[in-house]
Amino acid sequence: PFSPSQFCLSKADKEQYEKEERPESQQEILRKAAKDLPIYTTTASRAIRYCDRCQLIKPDRCHHCSACDICVLKMDHHCPWVNNCVGFSNYKFFLLFLMYSLLYCLFVAATVLQYFIKFWTNELPDTHAKFHVLFLFFVAAMFFISILSLFSYHCWLVGKNRSTIETFRAPTFRNGPDKNGFSLGCSKNLREVFGDEKKYWLLPIFTSLGDGCNFPTRLVIMDPEQLTVTSQNEPAKSSGANQSFPTRPLSESQNRLLASDSQWMEGGPEEENVKSGSLHHNTSDNS
């Protein structure tokens, strides 16, 4: 879907923005316009993410598609196979498309395999169908391998709650780039894409959570010298600078994705997200 109108500049702000030639003044206009918006990511240079072509402030995870010439919410990539952008509104359908295609190629290859074996052992009658059997088996097998690799990659992205764009360029938050900034744990990441009702997960029905503009984030600050958890008394601010949003403790629900009482920390030694108790202990030892 298109970005909501609340992210578009007002007529007065747009005229003032176009008249200004200095980037600093333009950014000041954007900061004032974005102070009430739920925006927590910026450009790598800490500037407000603004699309000059669509003339709107980009919501988090929104990117402009040069092929479609529009800003796409939670854009993943532009897919030439479906001739459309893959983003928030159709990402679940894209995954199901890959899964159904994978099963179809497997079915075709499995049913043709016995005839391919007969062809290989010269047991198949000498008919014109011999070429069709050979061609069909190789095409099904090649597409199966290709789709399997793509489907596996996107399953990994869903488990990490990343898009293809975010994999190559980590989103920049208030405290710097964080490739796992939107990751809430594998279970909740799956629910964000497929929804709360598991009975609808394999059906081509839109069940993704959220509106495409607001996304729950991890409240962990990554510091090069020391990992620290955001203080509960420190306000978390949007990129609009002046508008404060109350910081939630790690165990508190940020939306219905975080409604579970259990911690949503991701496990594994390679994960950057660690429990606040361990961080507090490490901080005391360093003191």
* Backbone structural class: alpha+beta
Number of helices: 7
Strand content: 5-15%
- Please list the strands of the largest sheet in the order they lie side by side: 1-2
Number of strands: 12
What's the main sheet like?
2 strands, antiparallel
- Given as residue ranges, the uncertain stretches (5+ residues, pLDDT < 50) are 220-287
Output mean pLDDT. Answer: 79
Shape: elongated
How much helix, percentage-wise, in residues?
25-40%
Distance between the termini: 50 Å
Query: Measured on Cα atoms, how large is the radius of gyration?
Result: 24 Å
Secondary-structure element pattern, one letter each = HHEEEEEEHHHEEHEEEEH
EC number: 2.3.1.225
GO molecular function, one term: protein-cysteine S-palmitoyltransferase activity
InterPro entries: Palmitoyltrfase_DHHC, PFA4/ZDH16/20/ERF2-like
Domain Palmitoyltransferase DHHC: 48-168
Structure description:
This protein has 287 residues and is of the alpha+beta class. Among the domains are: 5-86, no CATH class; 91-159. It has helices at residues 11-19, 23-34, 91-120, 129-160, 164-168, 186-194, 276-286, and strands spanning 50-51, 56-57, 63-65, 70-72, 77-79, 84-86, 172-173, 176-177, 220-221, 228-229, 236-237, 244-245. A two-stranded antiparallel sheet has the order 1-2. A two-stranded antiparallel ribbon has the order 3-4. β11 and β12 (244-245) form a beta hairpin. α1 packs antiparallel against α2 (23-34) and α3 (91-120) runs antiparallel to α4 (129-160). The radius of gyration is 24 Å and the shape is elongated. It starts with 10 loop residues before the first helix and ends with a helix. Its EC number is 2.3.1.225.
